[in-house]
Amino acid sequence: MPIVIKPCDDGLREEYAFIELQGDLKSHSETAFDGKFVGDLHFSKSGTPLLIIGHHLMYGKETKLDKPFALLEKCQEDGNVTYKVRCVVKNKIIFKTRPKPIVGA
Amino acid sequence: MSDFPDPEEEFELMYGDELELMDEQNLEDEDIAVLPAPNARKSLDFNTPTKTNSQSDENIDHNASFVSGCLEIDNETVGVTTEKETERIETTLHTDLNDVNHRKRTVNELFGDVDDLFETELDEIYSAPKKLCEDEKYKKDMNLIKLIVQKRNDYKQTHNLNSIGINTNPVSRDLERNKRNISLEVPKYPFIRIKNFAKENIYIRYHSEKYEEDESKRIVKESNSVGALGDNFQKVLNEAQEMIYKETTEQLTENRDIEMVEESNKDNQLWVELYKPKRYLELLSDESTNRTILRWIKLWDKVVFHRNPKIKVTQPLPSDNKKFFKFNELNTKLDEHGRPEHKVVLLCGPPGLGKTTLAHMVARHAGYNVIEINASDDRSIDSFRTALENATQMHSVIDREKRPNCIVFDEIDGAPPPSIDYLVKFIQGDVKPKGRKSKNKENTPSILKRPIICICNDVYVPALRPLRQISFVINFPQTSSVRLAERLVEICRRQQIKTDMGAMTALAEKSNNDIRSCLSVLHFFKTQNKPIGLSDIYKTNIGQKDMQKGLFTIWKEMFEIKRMRKLTGGSSAPAMKERMQNILSLIGSFGDHERVAQGVFENYPNLNTNINLEDTAHALDWFCFNDIFNKQIYTTQNYTLMGYLNYAFVVWHFAFARFQKEKITYPSAGYEAKAKALRQKAIVAEVLRGMSPLVRSYNSAIPLLLDSLPQIIRVISPPLRPVSLHLYSEEEKNSLLRVASIMADYNLNYIQQRKPDGAYEYNLEPNIEDLVVFDISNNRRKLPSYSNRQLIAREIEAEKMRRFEAQSGKNSVETSKVVNKKSEDSRQAVDASKKPELPNHLQRLKSKTISQKSVGKAAVRKDFFGRVIKCPAPSPGKSAQNALKSDIWYQYKEGFSNAVRKTIKIHSLK
Asked: Known PANTHER family for this protein (chain A) (predicted)?
């Protein structure tokens, strides 16, 4: 069965990137993460990414992926399953340093 | 005007003392006083008032003249004058008073009970010039008057009582005094109100201090009290003075006698010196001892005189074959230098037996020059060294006979230990010669080539130990009394003292065969020029040198009656008085009363003789007495009571002493009991300390010991079968648990201990068995067996663990509750409270939640005047807070993320 993969209609407008964390994301209420706010991603002036989750602040770095990934969207039309490529992910942001606590004032 | 004292008062103040003095004088002189005839007194009175009348106009003048008058009178002699004096005083006072008061009161009113004696004076007083009277002064004056009246009464009384000799009955006198001093209505005189047992008011006269003093003196004087001694003091004093007088006169006469004798006695030599043995044969001491020493000193002949000793050196003595080893046997072998085996002889024995004399005599007899070093010489190491070197290495130059030296160390037991050590080294040849000589004689150490004789009283002095080991010890036996008595008789004969053999034997025995003291006693008798009888000997106090008896000797004397040997040959018990004196002197000379008393106390029940119960009770009373006194002495340091302690020993001696010999043991019960008490107290303290606070709060040491512990020991030993825990019935298990819980409460436990024979046993810790289980009560077999103890011990540990856990669990629950309360408002805390407490190893660190409320509260700030400063809450901060509040949090994982790589198929993600 041929799988049809075609580029998105409106082209590859958005740029996506992976976020790789050395650690786990947890929820206090132990519920699913659906639609929840996880954290803030900022970039400093020098371009280093900053991630704030809860009261943790992490400094990461942007690296190029060895193999690019494609982000596909499944479309079902009359039994035909097609995939639309939303974008190609070429970069990932990796956070592997120990997070710094943000002390609330 | 009223501020100043009245002239009368002033007078009273100023001359009160004199008044008193005169009264006293009067009293003192009363015995000697010539009783004045009434008419004579009157005439005297007439004489004196003329003087006073003339001067009574001006008070001050009057006072002054009164003083002078007093002085004048003081110089005059005895009774009559003093009486005159007092009367005169009174009259003068009288005049003064009357000046003030006569208008208002008649004489009779004022001095109602006062005598006719002064009528004449009063008449005169009426005629005396009058002074103003002031109402303010009235009261003071009244008091004064009363005082004077009273004084006069007193005077009259004492006067009548003592001088005239109309002795009124003391009771009636007392009544009279009471009438004057005590009343039921409000009296006129100053008073103190008190209530008697019927709650009636009683008014007691308030006297001045002076009066009280007077009165007390008078009472003392009058009371012819019979003191505790049973005699009047005066009588006793007189007797004592008489005795002293007698003694002094006697002494004077005696002294005269002695002086005369001494003048007649031409040679002032002591008899000890005079009758010193001149030859070896004259020696009084034991013959065999003398011979032994002589033989020993002769052994030195080879080294000293270079001639072979005459004694056969290798003499196979038959005594060697004897079974017992005779210590006094002299080893006659010579060493390689030709010296005897023992380089030194140690003579020991009680004083006055002639040890020193023997040493000197023997040495001289063997041809030596004696060098004596005794206690009066310097005995430091240096002087020892020089003395030894001089004596052994030099020839005596001055002595024309050129005799070799022999050193005699007298009283060596008093020498310092280092010196004795040096002496020992010197004798053994270990001493390196000092100084320049050492260079010359380096290779040949100096060896001892002269005999040394050491003399001591007590051979068991610790310092003498090294010397004792290398020396030939000769215990000096007692001189036989018969031999000594013979010698004494001989001396008496030469000195022309009349005496007999019996007296001399008694003297010898009394002095413990101390020749020195015997001779000095004889010398003393000689000066009196009297024949010496047996009674004289018993009466004398013999000065004894270095006499100290051991504890056992004292106990022996306490329990044994010494038989006195009669001249006729039989023996008799000494009189009670003698026994008492003997014991008193014995105990008095021995310091450690307590030890002696303990010995008596512990030994008397074991005596072979039976003592009747009455005596025992009596003696025990005295033990109590002794105990009380000892306590008093040691608690209040009142050593004057010490003197009474000795008498208890006399009582004990009388109660317990018999003629039989008794076996006496050293008292140890006292010490043991003390040690045990200490141990037991420590155990009680240990129990108290270990108790859980709840139990401790209901216990104190004494009730615990007396009431609780004896029961507890029963409670904790229930009847348990010695089988495994699993086989126990429910009931048994319960009782075991109960025991464990009780023992845990009291912090008791069983601890395994190894017995000396290697077996193990479980003992209570702290061992309260020691405290409450006695040998007699035979409780031992009721106590749990070894296996049960083991079981209980384990159960106790388990119980303790359970308790600890329960305690800690309670604590944690409590703390968590507190936490919950605090963070009720925070949602997470509510969650936590819902969840059961996680065990430690499952718990994770959690981020701290920041409560909004506390942040907001902290933000309220006030300025200097207390006004709230409104600081606008920064909106970015708020957003940050929101961000921080997010539900999702990040858990960092340390390490490398690329440790394990796993390929994931796409279908597995589905």
From this structure: CHROMOSOME TRANSMISSION FIDELITY FACTOR 8, CTF8, CHROMOSOME TRANSMISSION FIDELITY FACTOR 8 HOMOLOG (S. CEREVISIAE)
